[in-house]
Amino acid sequence: MSHHLDSPVARQDIRLDITDLYLFRGETGTVFAINLCHSIFGPIPVPGYHPEGMYEFKIDLNGDAIEDITWRITFGERDQEGKQSYVVRCIRGAEAVDPHAPGHVVAQGTTGETVTTPSGLRVWAGKAGDPFWIEPDVLHAVGHAFQDGTTVNLSGWDPGRAKNLFAGHTVYSIVLEVPDSELLAGAGDSRRIGVWAVSTLATDAGGWRSINRVGLPMIHPLFTQYNEDLGNRLNAGQPADDFATYGEAVTKAVAGVIAANGTAEDPKAYAETVAHRFFPNVLPYQVGTPAVFGFAVWNGRSLTDNAPNVMFSIAANTPVSLGIGKESVTSKPSKTFPYVPPPETAPARA
């Protein structure tokens, strides 16, 4: 799974568990989207968005893995019809790192309805279909390999019977489309930005507790399926500190798989290269270009990119196929705003 149920802290309240971050060219600007509160969890006591939480898109404009812009979305309580009001704030400059900075209100709305501001910013939040796909047997085999330092053991697995664990399931999405001019003023001639998303929960002491932090896809399925303490820690902290904090652990995990596969003369050297590519855990993007999350380049992430194949194969230095692709998604993304798939009426049966 990309970030579904990725740590004990995230599972405590599924409304704060970000499953995926997407970043791509939209109809009018750059699209930032996250999914959360997914039906794979099972019956959800209170679906939707946490009224005591914050959902933030963090944008680095100069390559130092420190945010220069934060778009913050907060929600009110659910009404009798299940709708929630929301407020979008923008915080720029040095204050972008401060969870207490008030910022400027740029949009307000209600879930299920599109809001368009005079500047061209568009916002939508509501229930959607999950566009992500994963094959559960491959997922768990990859997790074991990187935990135990072995090859990805798929003996007995039949690709012809591969299935999408998330077919028919739903999420709650937040979609923000920002005019390119809002980003290019600080991104320079390269038009390069780095993006991650964060969910936090208010504490009784007046602070904010980090619940989920999402940049590149598939980091958690690779390294934390069987190491939940690492899962909790990866969801906290700042991207700029990632390599210093987690580089050694990820290098060791990758080197173990590479040594078992025998696919590099120097497993540790290859593993260090991978760890430097994975950290800081930030999704890169060149504003105004088509998104593609592929083997050769990471440039944002579209709703149909095959992130599991890419990340599993790069980390293992050998092809790791799921046996399924975007055709296994039962509700398809749209080319028009808000782009996310409509929700299925009921979860698919295995």
Query: Ranges with pLDDT <50 over ≥5 residues?
Result: 346-350
Supply the number of structural domains.
1
* Tally of DSSP β-strands: 14
Terminal-residue CA separation: 17 Å
Instruction: Give the overall average pLDDT.
Output: 93
Q: What integer value in Å does the Rg equal?
A: 19 Å
Number of helices: 8
Estimated helix fraction = 10-25%
Q: Which range does the strand content fall in?
A: 25-35%
Profile the largest sheet.
7 strands, antiparallel
The arrangement of helices and strands along the chain is HEEEEEEEEHEHEEHHHHEEEH
Summed up, what is this model?
The protein has 350 residues and is of the alpha+beta class.
Describe the structure in your own words.
The chain is an alpha+beta fold and 350 residues long. The protein has one domain (8-328). It has helices at 8-11, 136-148, 181-187, 219-223, 228-234, 242-261, 267-278, 307-316; strands at 18-25, 30-36, 53-60, 69-75, 85-92, 104-110, 115-116, 122-129, 170-178, 192-202, 208-214, 283-286, 292-293, 298-299. The model is unreliable at 346-350 (pLDDT under 50). 48% of the residues are buried.
